[in-house]
Amino acid sequence: MLRILDGLCFPQSGHVSFRGEPLSETRLQDQEINFAFRRRVALVFQNPDVQLFNASVFDEVAFGPLQLRWPKDEIRRRVTDALDTMGILHLKDRAPHRLSGGEKKRVAIASVLALNPEVLLLDEPTNGLDPKSQSQVIDLLATASAERTVITATHDLSIVEDIAQRCHVLEAGRIAVSGTVHEILEDIALLQRTNLVHAHRHVHGALVHSHPHRHGHPEHER
């Protein structure tokens, strides 16, 4: 779904529009239209290794702005700001392939933030991060959503309240239900059916029982 929204692949049926215009393979072949779209919409992949390919972290984050032909001073400022926001300015001269998984994820996010897109698409942004880095990314997304459209795909229900206002639950490639965060997280039957929660089994003497459980804020656990 995120790849379709980012214009990397296209649906076999139905259509996607951006700013009232169809987002199609034919239209994106027009360099001017493609340029304008890539400037406004950016995707952070779940696996940062498929996104990082430059010799240094600084070059990685600067790659997108360079394609947009911005002034060099502006690019340096944006890259420095993005690296500082993600807490990785000290890594600017390091080779991305020598970084830890969490560091790579933060570089990938910084490379997108440098573009200051209107729409930010993220696939499992906290996957593989240590708790401190997860908290940093969550804070970033909460701030970013006040300034732009942020669409996040995640199985981690513990972060949903902090990053989203509205949820769409997918089941077998289709939207099973849409609603507010509270409505979705309180619908335990839905979460069980779509494999977003699991049952814990407990033994009490000769009795064994199970109940649905999801990791997250205690007031929402059942």
Distance between the termini: 30 Å
Overall pLDDT metric = 85
Number of helical segments with 4 or more residues: 10
Sheet/helix structural class: alpha/beta
| Helix proportion range | 25-40%
Architecture per CATH nomenclature, i.e. the level-2 architecture: 3-Layer(aba) Sandwich
Shape call: globular
User: Would you list the SSEs in sequence order as H and E?
Assistant: HEEHHEHHHEHEHEEHHEE
Poorly predicted sequence stretches spanning 5 or more consecutive residues = 206-213, 215-222
Q: What can be said about the biggest beta sheet? A: 3 strands, parallel
The largest beta-sheet arranges its strands as 3-4-5
- CATH structural class: Alpha Beta
Radius of gyration: 20 Å
CATH topology: Rossmann fold
Describe the structure concisely.
With 222 residues, the chain is an alpha/beta fold. It is 39% helix and 20% strand. It is built from 10 helices and 9 strands.
Write structural notes for this entry.
The structure is a single chain. The protein is of the alpha/beta class. The protein is built from ten helices and nine strands. It has one domain: 3-Layer(aba) Sandwich (Rossmann fold), CATH 3.40.50.300. The strands form four sheets. The chain has a three-stranded parallel β-sheet with strand order 3-4-5. The chain has a two-stranded antiparallel sheet with strand order 1-2. The protein has a two-stranded antiparallel ribbon with strand order 6-7. A hairpin with a 2-residue loop joins strand 1 and strand 2. The longest helix is centred in the middle third of the chain and has 14 residues. It is globular and about 50 Å long.
